[in-house]
Amino acid sequence: MTSLVRLDRDLRVDLVRGFALWVIFVNHTPGNWLGYITPRNYTLSDATEAFVMLAGYAAGIAYGAAMDRQGWFFAATRVMGRVFTLYVAHIFLLVVFTAQVGLSAARLDSAAYLDELHLDPFATDPYRALLEALLLRYQPSFLNILPLYITILAMFAVAMPLMRYPRLMLALSAGLWAAARVFDITLPSWRGEDWFFNPLAWQVLFFIGCALSYRPPGGAPLSVPWRRWAGVLCGAFLGAGAVLTVMIWFHWDYTEATLPAFAPYLAAIDKASLHPLRLLTMLALTYLIAHLLPRDAAWLRSLPGRVFALMGQQALPVFCAGIALSFLARVGLEAEDTWWMQIVVNLVGAMALVGLAMLTAWYGAEKRGAPRTPRLPSPPQPDRN
């Protein structure tokens, strides 16, 4: 584990992203008791916001440096190469997920799986469903995060030079987010349904991450200095958000009965187009974590910290495995919803995610390593007889 974690990076970013990937696995497993303690139960944002923002942060570091060294066109081709990798991963995950859900539905005689996960078109019109899935115009449940990432990254390939003008980039991004919300602008889909994650709105988080990480030649990244009053305001906002989240998730009937005029505003806190309260929650969390968690904190290099950091550094395979494993975990919990099955599902799932991260990191380290010099055969020894 120690040798596989890349310590030359900001481990805070990797740790939060690894934690978000583990949370995605837990939250996508219905009936998982750990789902009651994940951040979505006490903040107005969840792991998806963290995933998108940190993806932008990583893109600003990696592709911004490539743009400054070798120009926009070269950097854009690298971004589009990453887009292609993500697209292939999405199609592979689509095939695996559809196969395991379809097989489970047939073996367990449960068509509800297909309806609930929006996979029923594969039963009624499979060829059209496959074509629309390849075009990203059809996205079954749980398979909508990678299309969001693919689309935003393609937008980033075009808008990359704007990183040199961070305030202009953020103004344009915020304008697009506002327009997408106000005028209900989204990308087309097959059956007339909106994208579950509207890329035209969610891109604002990605570009905020870019602006915070990009370091222009001879300059410094966009700075957001610490102010005590701002920290107190962020803490108060997150506290109020925790109360609202509890009202939404655990006491909705009581909220509707006692606050009939306020309940519609809570119900309107949508995820598809990134409601302002969800956006502000993510920004408040980022501000506090960035300033209150030192980059060189010793516990970041502890075993738990390195485990999450390693998963964050191998985000794509860990994410894909987490989505596939979440359905298997669901089937297991539905077959035997007991405390020991809860332990087995979560322990095996976590071990599988960490094991895959270790394997991927080891393979990447081998590819980056210097080629080994082949050992030459020893010269023949003279016959002493």
Automatic annotation (TrEMBL):
The chain crosses the membrane at residues 12-30, 50-67, 79-99, 142-162, 196-214, 226-252, 272-294, 315-333, 339-365. The keyword Oxidoreductase does not apply. Keywords: Membrane, Transmembrane, Transmembrane helix. The keyword ATP-binding does not apply. Pfam families: OpgC_C. This is OpgC domain-containing protein. It comes from Roseomonas alba. The lineage of its organism: Bacteria, Pseudomonadati, Pseudomonadota, Alphaproteobacteria, Acetobacterales.
